[in-house]
Structure formats: structure tokens, C-alpha cells
Amino acid sequence: MAFPKDFLWGGAVAANQCEGAYNEDGKGIDIQDIMPRGIKGAPTAEPTADNMKLVGIDFYHRYKEDVKLFAEMGFKVFRTSIAWSRIYPHGDDAEPNEKGLQFYDDLFDECHKYGIEPLVTISHYETPLHLAKEYNGWISHDLIGFYERYVRTIFARYKDKVKYWLTFNEINSVLHAPLMSGGIMTPLAELSKSDLYQACHHELVASALATKIGHEIDPQAQIGCMVLSMPTYPLTPKPDDVIAAMQANNLNDFFGDMHVRGVYPGYMKRYFRENGITIKTTPEELALLKEHTVDFVSFSYYVSICETADKSKTKGEGNLIGGVKNPYLQESEWGWQIDPQGLRFVLNRFYNRWQKPLFIVENGLGAKDELVDDGKGGKTVNDDYRIAYLNDHLVQVGEAIEDGVPVMGYTTWGCIDLVSASTAQLAKRYGFIYVDRHDDGSGTLARYRKKSFWWYKDVIASNGESLKK
User: What share of the chain is helix, strand, coil (3-state, %, to 5)?
Assistant: First the structure.
């Protein structure tokens, strides 16, 4: 398995799912602090004690211990996010919060101590709550200016510590989870498509602006977009199904097209016309989109789905975007279908479409892990199911590299157990490191290396040679 010598092996987390310390050192309230059921339930008026994210896994206070464990596995890169409301507590503040800035200075310094490059997501489902309540999130044009102030601050502060940046996490997910992804308080069922796509436009303009600013402040910075990839297959070879799958893929890939090509594609103009969607743009915004495209494309990959013109088919579970179930695939405990070859497929398709380097920044298996004695006086999790999942997906990454796809790196999602974004549970564990905390809030927060911890360490040390085809 021939992975490039400079391949960036690592893991990924998000501030809102691991840091905790939701109201410490000047941090403001963000939308996750009022979402105790993830996207499955209605938001609360204010933070409530049953919200697992308020404590997370206490990464804010334990990051040194955790980064040391990542280094023990041999991480070359660690993907995390900056909590916008740690830097600008309300989002529209005139001045940043120094204690928040210092925390990320300390975190990035800790990474560099072990030779780990930070890969930083600027906005990862963490819109300051004030911006959601007062402006209805990214529906408002004003958010572009607030985001610009935020990115200027962090690019200037961390230009010597961060090489790799992502502007928005899973930016296309705003179509399916507008509050979590876009800070939009209007429920999806009540949101007009014009308002929804206006919010998309504002985020895309802000992303291009961030790319421009980042390159001006640090010409060596690598700035990428991040999209939720969910390859959609036709359920049958029937041409109607093939066209339905094509249209579904286009609606998902539109965000990548905008980041890479910088112009609204014809298929979206048709979609807007046929659905009565109107959005406001300016010549200056359209020029910004065209002139400041990304250096690379990053994406999450968990599942593939099917599409059909037959509307009687029911949809199954998936990463925010459900889809018709594939009769040839098995599924996880949470109903997500497992398709390692889909990762090779999407890598090839994205590269053929965009001709940009690709970075897999989320991939993993959520499962109910059991902590057991390791026979040596300690505890572990015998997560062979996770090892099999990751091994099979990484084999397909190797196949894509053999196909000629330039893959920069791979960061597994939830390299340490954290609170799920979709369900706000800790029972849905992804990590190589078990965290002793449970959905009822109990637990010591102690860390334990799972069997997969040692497996991934070997994969990294061998640069993929230890993978089993």
C-alpha cells in the first residue's frame, strides 16, 4: 500500500464536542450550548444541565494529556476547531477575548511540541448564540462582516502556528441542519428556499473572503473548504434513477464547485429557476468568489446512499443527509450503511471534478464500546469492529492513491471519544481513546487506550504498510 512519504496521518475533533468549559474564561454561549439533543430535538432557551456538550470530555483542561496520547500514536496532524465564541463571545463584539486566544496559542504550542501540525476549522457548528438570535445566523448579510473580523484576528494571531485551515465544517449541511450548520433559528420546515440559499451564498462569500485574507496574511497558508461527502448511487440502472442520483449529487457538490470554480453552475441556476428561488448578489461578491478559490478540498466520509425517482421508497439514516438504503450494504448500530469502496469512488470523482488535492478529514465508526480489563491491570476496549472498518476504508484510500488521486492526509473522526453532533450522546463512540463519561453525566473522565489505539499506531509507523487487504 503506497501512501506518500509526507502523508498526514492523524485524527479530528471539534471544539463544541470535546472542550467543555462552555462558560469559562470569557467564552460566550454558542448554539451547541442550547442543543442538548443535537439535531434530533428542539433547542432550549438557555443551556441546561442535561446537555453533554457543556462538559464534553473536558478537553479544555485536559488537552495536554490528550495531545500526548495523540503523539504516542504518531499523529502528524491534529484537526480541531476554534470556538468562535471563545474569541468573540457574542460574535459581533468590537474586541476579541484574550483568554480565548491564549487557549488556542497553548493548544497549538502543545501540538508543535510533539511535531504535530494543527489543521484548524474556523467555524465548526459553533455559531455564537447572539448571532443566531439577533441576526438569524447566516441569513443575514451582516454575518460576513463579523466572520471577517474573526478570521482576521485568528489568521494574524496564529500565522506562525497553523499551516492548514478549513473555512466551514461540512458547509453543505446547512441545507439539512440550518441551526447547527448556519446558526439559523427559523425551523427548516418554515424556512423558504430563497432564505436558505441566501444563507448559503453569504457563507460562500465569507469563505472566499477568508481565503483572500488568509493568503494575504500568510502566503504559505493552505486554505481549504470542507464538504459533507455522501456519494449517491442510482438505486437501479433505470435512467430515471440515474438522473435522480445525478441531481442529488449536484445539489451536494454545488458547494465544492463554488469553492473550486468560483461561479454559480448552470444546474444550480436551473434549480433556482424551477423552484422560484431568488438570491441577492453583488458584482463585488461574485468577483470575490471567482478570484479566491481554495487550495484543496477536504471532506467527511461515512456512508453512501442511493436515490430513485420512485418516491414511495423510504429513506434510511445517514450523516445529516438520509438516503434510500443500498440492498448490498450492511449498516452500523446507528443505521449508517458501511461502504469502504464508496471512499475510493468519491476520491476519484472529486478529483476528476475539481483537480485539487484532497484531504479526508472525517471518517470513522460510531459504536457502543465496552470497557474491559486488559489482563495487565488496566482497562481497554476490544474494538475489532472499528479496526476492521478503518482498515477497509484506508485500503480504499490506498487504491485511490494508486488511481492517481493526490490525497494529502487522513484524520479519523473522534480520535478520542466525544459528544456526538447528531445525537448529543457519548454512547456513540468513535475514538481510539475511551473516555469514562456516560450519557447520564457520570464517569471519572479518565482516558483508556483501546485496541484500535495500538493498531493505528502501527498503521502510522508503517505508513500504511500494516493494512490488510
Answer: 45, 15, 40
Helix (H) or strand (E) holding 204: helix 193-217
What pLDDT does 391 receive?
98
| Strand boundaries in 350-430, DSSP class E | 358-362, 372-373, 379-380, 407-413
Is residue 227 helix, strand or coil? strand
Return the C-alpha torsion angle 128, 132, 137, 141, nearest 10.
Answer: -90
Torsion sign across C-alpha atoms 299, 301, 304, 305? negative
CA separation for the pair 429, 409 (Å, rounded): 22
How far is the C-alpha of 348 from the C-alpha of 399, rounded, in Å? Answer: 10
Neighbours of 408 (CB within 10 A): 23
Going from the C-alpha of 429 to that of each of 184, 223, 225, 433, the distances in angstroms are: 28, 29, 26, 9
Whether pLDDT at 240 is above 60: yes
Distance CA 67, CA 265 (A): 42
The answer to whether residues 227 and 349 touch, using CB atoms and an 8 Å cutoff, is: no
CA-CA-CA-CA torsion for 130, 136, 137, 141, nearest 10 degrees? -110
Q: How many residues appear in the chain?
A: 469
3-state secondary structure of 234: strand
Q: Answer for the pair 101, 147: CB distance below 8 angstroms, yes or no.
A: no
> Model pTM greater than 0.90?
yes
Average pLDDT of 206-235?
Answer: 97
Percent of the chain with pLDDT over 70: 98
State residue 40's pLDDT score. Answer: 81
Instruction: Assess contact for 24 and 133: CB atoms under 8 A.
Output: no
For helices 384-402 and 451-461, angle between their N-to-C axes, nearest 10 degrees: 20
Residue 2 pLDDT: 78
Domains and their CATH numbers in the chain: 8-461 (3.20.20.80)
Report, as residue numbers or ranges, the catalytic residues. Answer: 362
Which three three-digit cell numbers place residue 255? 458547494
All residues at 6 or more sequence positions from 44 whose CB lies less than 8 Å from its CB, including other chains = 34, 35, 36, 51
